[in-house]
Design a protein that fits this description.
Blueprint: H1 2-6, H2 16-30, H3 32-36, E1 41-48, E2 55-62
Antiparallel strand pairs: 1-2
């Protein structure tokens, strides 16, 4: 999931939000099989520069509201 999106990239703060969204979306595609069997999947993405700088976090949670009313 990471190599096609981030391979060869240099950290760029203005692109982090797009990267975290793309990585989360791709990770969810990978889990389609288990989600189709009723599994709950939570994806957390953290992209961070290799320095003492700040970081941005993106999370996605999906569930079947017709079967589960709580996480």
């Amino acid at each position: 999931v990471l190599e096609p999106l981030l391979g060869g990239q240099v950290y760029n703060h203005s692109r982090v939000q797009d990267w975290t969204t793309q990585i989360g979306d791709e990770a969810l595609k990978v889990t389609d099989t288990v989600r189709s069997k009723g599994a709950k999947v939570i994806v957390n993405v953290l992209v961070m520069e290799k320095t003492d700088g700040g970081f941005r976090v993106s999370s996605t949670a999906l569930w079947d509201e017709t079967k589960d009313d709580l996480l």
